[in-house]
Amino acid sequence: MESMTTSISTSVTTSDTTRPSSEQVSNAEVCNGDLKSSVTACTTTTKCQSEPQRSSRWATVGLLLALSFVFAVADFAIFGRWTEDGGFLAALFNYGDGTDLTTELVLISGLAGFVLVVRGPGQLLVTKSSARPKKNAVPHPSSCSSVAKGGAGAPKKMASSTGPVTRRSAATVRCNQAIDEAARAGDMEKAGKLLLELERNGGQPDIMSYNLAIRACAKAGDAHVAERWVKRMEARGVRPTLCTYNTLLDACAKANKAEACEAWLKHMLDEGLEANVISYATAIYARAKRGDAGAAEAWLKQMVAAGVEPDSVSYNSVIHAYSVKGNATGAERWLEEMRVKGMATSVATYTAVIDACAKVGDVPRAERWLEQMLHDGLEPNVVTFSAMIDACAKGGNLARAEFWHDKMIQVGVKPNAHSYSAVINACAKASGATVSASAEAAERWLDRSEEAGVANDVVIYSSVIDACGKAGDAERAMRVFQRMRANGLRPHIVAYAALARPFAYRGDWIKVESIRQSMAADGVVMNEYFLYAQLLAYAVARPRQTDRAEQCFREALATGLEANDHVVGALARAVGRGRCEELMNELCNGREVPSQPQRRMASGGVRPGAGTRSEHRW
Questions:
Q1: How far apart are alpha carbons 99 and 302 in whole angstroms?
Q2: How far is CA 253 from the centre of its chain?
Q3: With 0-12 CB in 10 A as exposed, 13-18 as middle and 19+ as buried, what is 371?
Q4: End-to-end CA distance of the chain
Q5: Residue 329 neighbours by CB under 8 Å, 6+ apart
Q6: Helix axes of 435-452 and 474-486: crossing angle, nearest 10 degrees
Q7: Which DSSP symbol is given to 576?
Q8: Which of 408, 462, 473, 589 is the most exposed place for a label (fewest CB within 10 A)?
Q9: Within a 10 A sphere around the Cβ of 588, how many other Cβ atoms?
């Protein structure tokens, strides 16, 4: 049970601070920059279109005057006034009041009109198609169909500094705006529909269209759909760019698909694209999430060999890889290398090292690095202090956990649900404390969290219930559980499993079944942790509930739950080893039944209902 509670309620979020996109220029920002420039170009083109229109009007007037001038010269020559009056100007001034001049002007206008008809009005006059567009004629950017189909308000053609912008490219720009809005909102499905709509309506999606759709997938952590978009754009003749691949790599890393991330990085290199620091840092991070320090280091070395200088994010990811596995020595080694190279260390760097120390419960080591962090002028945040408190909790040192929590408040860092949960976990593991004292201390810290206004989190209550369960204080666990529900919080499976455990140790299978019914009424699905508690209750009960245990196990397998060693061990205790082997042959393909662990002894005998230390962790 401890492993599940820790993974949900007290996990240090240093991984978020080592992701390349959090401290470097993200792929989305690169794509957005392209989008903004395109939208600006489109807007500027539309805005400036009225200036050529006004200029063309004056050009037409000037051309008419020029034609009139030419025809006037010809007219004066025809009527013989050129020589008599000393030229056409003299004729114009001398005969300005005569009827003949009026006739001449009519003739000139007629000839000018004839020329206009012959040359075509589109070349000399401003036509309706080039009139300034109305404001309400621009379609809403959330729709790609009206523009792509040439509906109302669709721009026909506009001038551009880089060439004519056709109707399709204008539709693409507007559709890209809509896809960008959907991507920013995290609506991957809408972004995909908009892009498909543009394709179906005859639009021309460009590289940015696909990059934005892929970015939406990356934000949702859906690497599969992101890969499909890359393949689709390639099939349509749109060549992926570095931005495309980096966004795809980010999607794979988020989806914990390190192999796919590496495969796409190699594919990108095979395509002749040069990977940058984000490309390699993402591959390193994908391995670091799994704690695969060897693979993370290998990518860092390949990065250097390719002539790409690793940044602090790349090093932080390698440190995080060691932190995931609790390898404090490896994490320290890479931190020291950063210091030797003169690279800037950050809060995330030290937090990852402190977290590595926390996983092995080495409080002095963690405190030394926290002091070094302060010496370097870095201010710890709530994640750093929570990692420090976790180290104290792991070592069962409640006093130091409380000290660092108080220290955090003194320096002005606001505690959160994780920091309170870490102290509560320290209460449950406090060495030398009686079971009742540890449960009381956990509930006291719950009171403090409520007073601080951060107790509206199921994680805190689950941690207290878990502490009460480890102390065997079932009544206090139930009281805290009801207190959580009274505050309007909906329990999750961790809270239900923690609540069932102290009753299971008592063999109170009736109460455990009642808790399961309440859990089902809340729509919470049973997991392996709760299944273990229920089977344990049947095993400890006197008399043992053999039939109920077997029926419970069969129902659990029917829902898709897996029979791990803890579950099978509890089943063996409930139905007997022989019958358990039969069930394994029947239901689990002959799975081996683990050997029964030795129970803890108290006062020379076995304490009724007491489980092993590993059982208490479950």
A1: 94
A2: 10
A3: exposed
A4: 3
A5: 322
A6: 10
A7: -
A8: 589
A9: 15
Q: Please, which residues have CB within 8 angstroms of residue 495's CB and are 6 or more apart in sequence? A: 458, 461, 462, 465, 481, 484
Q: Which residue has the tokens 């829902």?
A: 559
Residue-wise pLDDT for 106-150, tens only, equals: 666 666 666 555 554 444 443 333 344 444 433 444 445 544 444
d(CA 304, CA 256): 24
| Per-residue confidence (pLDDT) for residue 24, from 0 to 100 | 44
pLDDT digits (tens, 9 = 90+) for 164-203: 333 446 788 888 999 999 999 889 999 999 999 988 888 8
Residue 139: name the closest of 36, 46, 33, 35 by CA.
Answer: 46
Among the listed residues 8, 1, 19, 4, the one whose alpha carbon sits nearest the alpha carbon of residue 418: 8
Integer-rounded Cα radius of gyration of the chain: 38
pLDDT tens per residue, range 2-59:
444 444 334 444 445 455 643 343 444 444 444 444 433 333 333 333 334 444 555 6
* Beta-carbon contacts of residue 439 (< 8 Å; ≥ 6 apart): 427, 467, 468, 471, 473, 476
Q: Please state the length of the chain.
A: 618
pLDDT in tens, 245-258: 999 999 999 999 99
- 61: which 2 tokens? 């007037």
- Separation CA 567–CA 555 (nearest Å): 13
Token pair, residue 444, equals 């006291």
How many angstroms separate the CA atoms of 74 and 404, rounded?
Answer: 102
- Residue 400 near residue 363, CB atoms below 8 Å: yes
Give the phi and the psi of residue 256 in degrees, each rounded to 5.
Answer: 60, 40
User: Where is pLDDT greater, at 24 or 421?
Assistant: 421
CA atoms of 605 and 329, how far apart (whole Å): 42
Contact 17, 270 (CB under 8 A): no
**For residues 231 and 250, what is the distance between their CA atoms, to the nearest angstrom?**
17
Query: Position of tokens 């404390």?
Result: 433
Which distant-in-sequence residues (6+ apart) come within 8 Å of 485 by Cβ? Answer: 491
C-alpha 495/C-alpha 491 separation (Å) is 6
**Tokens representing residue 326 in the block:** 């609790």
What torsion do the CA atoms of 496, 497, 500, 501 make, to the nearest 10 degrees? Answer: -150
Whole-angstrom distance, CA of residue 414 vs CA of residue 404? 13
Contacts of 161 (CB under 8 A, 6+ apart): 41
